Amino acid sequence: MARTLGKNSVDATGSSARQAFERFGPYVTISLLLIAWELASRLGLVIPFLLPPLSVVITRIATDFMSGQLPLDIAITLYRTLTAFALSAIVGVTIGIVISRNATMRWFFDPLISIGLPMPKIALLPVFMLWFGLFDLSKILMVAFSASFQIIIATWSATQSIEKELIWSAQSLGASRRDILREVILPAAMPQILTGLQIAMPICLIVVLITEMIMGGQGLGDSMLRSARYVDSQGVFAGIVEIGIVGFCVIKVMEYIRRRLLVWHQETREETTV
Q1: Residue 146 class from Cβ within 10 Å (0-12 exposed, 13-18 middle, 19+ buried)?
Q2: How far is CA 13 from the centre of its chain?
Q3: CA proximity to 73, closest of 83, 63, 65, 84
Q4: What pLDDT, in 10s, does the model give residues 80-121?
Q5: Which CATH architecture has domain 68-273?
Q6: Dist CA 237 CA 48 (whole Å)
Q7: How crowded is the C-beta side of 122, counted as CA atoms within 13 Å?
Q8: Can you tell me the distance from the alpha carbon of 202 to that of 114, in angstroms, rounded to the nearest whole number?
Q9: What is the DSSP letter of 124?
Q10: Does 11 have pLDDT greater than 60?
Q11: Whole-angstrom distance, CA of residue 168 vs CA of residue 31
């Protein structure tokens, strides 16, 4: 009995340690890299111009924030990112559901998706600039176009994998097509659709930054490229840190939204009980 209790105690301790490592391990790794960055620059292991000390970069970020330029750049970048994400989500989920339910639409969209998915969509930016101008509209449409493919594929795959028995059962109970979509298909497909949305959000941010670097118009990408043009290494690395923080926050927000929307789902229950 005592031996069994001792074994259970060891297993529980090991499980707790593993959970703590999984939760805090990435933060420890990032902290070690940041310390190494500071020491490498301070000790002269690298030329400070090529890699400014982290403390100097943080001071630069604080200065930009106090001047009001950094909050403005973040707001502009997030506006473009979130607007494009919302547009790509609406279009992507709609097309994904339609092509999974309609053979004619699937015949039409399948070759377009097969060609467009592996293609570097940013190569079409000059076309968007010609069609929609050099301002935010072309940036937002370019970003939405780039991210929508992942959402279409995720939605299509999710709705196709739903067990037919669920749909047949709903039909036998007299449910309409709209009821089946709302009460059966969307809840069953929601985890995989949200996965597609979680993949699409970083894509939106990345493409927004690229369009800002190419087309200008303020934002984090434009600010970072201007620093590079003026050979301002502190500004460049400040931009890298700022983009990393914004990207991290965006990903965490998406994870939180997923947990809230899937509070009823098995994966959320497993995370809660672990």
Answers
A1: buried
A2: 34
A3: 65
A4: 999 999 999 999 999 998 898 888 888 888 888 888 888 889
A5: Orthogonal Bundle (1.10)
A6: 12
A7: 13
A8: 22
A9: G
A10: no
A11: 53
Burial track 151-183 (b if 16+ CB lie within 10 A, e otherwise): bbbbbbbbbeebeeeebeebeeeebeeeebbee
Residue indicated by tokens 């959402």 = 151
Phi, psi of 47 (to 5 degrees): -70, 125
Distance separating alpha carbons of residues 215 and 126, to the nearest angstrom: 10
Closest CA to 215 of 148, 130, 118: 130
Per-residue pLDDT tens digits for 63-79: 999 999 999 999 999 99
> What is the reported pTM?
0.84
CB atoms closer than 10 angstroms to residue 231: 9
